[in-house]
Amino acid sequence: MTLDSSVTVLKGVGEALAKKFAVVGIRTLADLIDYYPRRYEDYSVMTPTSQLRPGTVTIEAVIKQAKGRYVRRGMHITEAVASDEQGSVRLIWFNQPYRADALKPGQKYFISGEYQLSHQRFAIMNPSVEMASDFPLNTARIIAVYRETKGLTSRQVRAAVQQVRPLIAGLPETLPPHIVVQQKLMSYAEAMLTIHTPDSAQQLEEARRRLGFEEVFRLSLASLLNKQENQNEIALEIPFDEQLARDFVSHLPFQLTDAQRRTIWRIYLDLQKTQPMNRMVEGDVGSGKTVVAAMAALMALAQDWQVAFMAPTELLARQHAESIYKLLQALGYADKVVLLVGSLSAAQKKKAHEAIASGQAQFIIGTQALIQDKVDMHRLALIVIDEQHRFGVEQRKTLMAKAGHMPHVLSLTATPIPRSLALTLYGELDISILGDKPVGRQPIITEIISPNSHKQLYEKIDAELEQGRQMFVVCPLITDSTMVEANSAEKIYEQLSKKQFKHRRVGLLHGKLKAADKQAIMQKFVDHELDILVSTTVIEVGVDVPNATIMMIESAERFGLAQLHQLRGRVGRGEHQGSCYLMLDDSKQPSRRLRALVSSNDGFRLAELDLELRGPGAIYGTMQHGQLDLRIAKLSDTKLIAAARTAAQSLLDDGVNLLEYKELMTHVTRLRAVTNLN
What we know:
Blueprint: H1 15-23, H2 29-33, E1 39-42, E2 55-70, E3 76-84, E4 87-94, H3 99-102, E5 108-118, E6 121-131, E7 142-145, H4 154-163, H5 165-169, H6 177-182, H7 188-196, H8 201-231, H9 242-250, H10 258-271, E8 278-283, H11 289-301, E9 306-310, H12 314-329, E10 337-340, H13 346-358, E11 363-366, E12 380-386, H14 393-401, E13 408-413, H15 419-424, E14 430-434, E15 445-449, H16 454-466, E16 470-474, H17 489-500, E17 506-509, H18 515-526, E18 532-535, E19 548-553, H19 561-568, E20 579-583, H20 592-599, H21 603-614, H22 617-625, H23 638-653, H24 662-675
Parallel strand pairs: 4-6, 8-13, 8-14, 9-11, 9-12, 10-11, 12-13, 15-20, 16-18, 16-19, 17-18, 19-20
Antiparallel strand pairs: 1-7, 2-3, 2-5, 3-4, 5-6
Helix pairs in contact: 7-8, 8-23, 8-24, 10-11, 11-12, 19-21
C-alpha cells in the first residue's frame, strides 16, 4: 500500500464505491489523505444517562435488548435499551433492519447521536454505535465530517482513512526542520493524522495551525521569490524633472492630497532606479489614482519613451484617455496620447498601430487590444494596469514582453486590499495607499430600504431629480432568471420608466450591449440627457459622473461588501451630497455586511470584514480563489501570516538551498504563477 495506490486496495472499497470516491476527487490514497474534513462533531464528552439533555450526546452503556419490526408502508424500526450505572435510555433507528442482529446484549458500547423527543418519550435517534473495546471512529470522540456525495458518506470516508493511518504516520516532513522547531509546530505526519482523527479540540487547533502555517508559508515564499527575480531585472532609468512636476501640479484644478504627494514621490524614487518598479496604488473610488498615474507617466514622456495604460473595459479606457488628455494638455503632451480599443474601425486601428510603432504615440491607453500581435511598442518604459486583478497573469506578461526588457509596472486598484492578503498574495509588490478623501468630498449617506418603504423613497428621490441631480440604479441580473430570485435591470427599467419615473428620462445599460451602444448610453448620462441610468455592475469601476448623487442598489443582499462599497463610490463625486440606498427584496433582518456598509465609509475596514465573511475569492474572483491553496489558514489570522511571512523571508536571507525541499517547491512553483504580478 503506497500513496499512489488506488482506493480499491482498501477493504470495503470496490469499483462501485471507488467511482463515488472519484466524484469528490479521491482516486488514490494520497487523494484520500489530502481530503480535509469540512467540519467536526464533538462526541468526546461522556454523559451519564441520568444527566442527558436534548441535543448531541455520547454515552458509554451496555445494550440489554434490541428488536426490530416493520410498521406502516414498509418502514422498519429498530428499538433498543442502553443502560449504565445511573439508568437507561431508549435507542431508535429507522430503516436499519441489520441493527438488531449486529448488537450484542451485555456488550459495552460507545453510543453517539441526537437525544430528542419521539412520541412523547425521549430517545437517542439513529445513533452511531461502536464497541468500547475498539478504536472508535464514529463515537466517543471528535469526529470528522467530510464533503459527501450521493452514495458516499462521512462514515465511509472515516473508515477508509482509518485503514491508511499507518501510511499517514509515515509521511515525511514537508517544511524545513528548523522552521518546524522555531515555530513550535506539529510534525506534518502528526498534523495530518490529527486533522482526520483529533483526540481533543486543543490538538485539532494545533494541527490547524501547523497546516495553515504551511499554506501561508508557501504563498509568502512564492511571492518573495517573484520579488527577488524581479529585482534582478534591468529597467530603463527614468530621471526626475522637478520643474515638470511643479508645472503639472500648477495646472491642476484641485489640490493634491497628502497621500497623493507621498505616493507620487515614492514612484519617482522607484523610476530613477534600473531595478524595475513593481508598485500598487490602492485607494477608494475617487481618491485620485489616475492623476498619480499621469504624473508618473509624465517623466517617461519627457524622455521620449512610451507608457502603456491598460484598463479592463472599453468604457473605462475611453474615460481614462479623456481624463489624461485634459491633464497633459497644458504641458503640450496631449497630442502624444492615443486610444486603442476593440471598437475602433480598421482604419483607426491601423493609424494607431503605425503611430505606436514609430514612437509618435507615447501614451497608449487601451484595453486588451494593447496585447495584440500587431501592436509594436517603440520604447516602452512604464506600464500602468488599472484594476490589475481583472487581468490574467499571461495577459500582463504579454504586455510587458512588448517592452523587450523589464518595464516599470504601476498597478492601480479601487478595491481596498486587506493587509493580510497584501502580505501573501501581493507580497512581491510595494504598496502605496491613497487613504485621504479629496478636499471637499462628503461621506456618502447610506440607508437600507425595506420593500414597504419604496413609495416614500421614490418621492424623496424625485424631489432630488427635480433639483437637477441624477441617479444610478444597479441590479444583479440583466434579465429575470428562474434560477435566482433577484431584480433584473430589464425588469426595473420597465418598472421605473413606465410607472414611478415615467416623467423622467430613463436609460438602460448592461454588458450584453455592443461597445458602441454602451458608450453612447453612458455619454448621454454624462451629458445629462438621462436622469436615471438602470444598469448592471458594468458601472462598478471608473465611470465618473459628478452630477450623479443617488445610487440605488436593487437586491442588495446579492452583492459582496467590497462591490457594494465600490458602487456607492460612483456617486457624490461633485459638490452635492451623495446618497446610497440598499434595496431589500424582503422584510427580513438585513445581513451583517449591509449593516456594516451603513455604519462605515472606510473601504479598508469593509474589505477586512468582506475577507472574514466570504474569503479571498469574494475580493479577487474565482480565477485566483481556486488557486490560492488556502483550505485551513484564515487570512484574518494576522499573527499566523506575520510568522509565516517572516519565516519565508528568513529562509531566503539564509541562502538555504530550496531544491532540497522538493515537495515544498512543487507547491511554491505553482503558486508563483498565481501571485506573479510582475
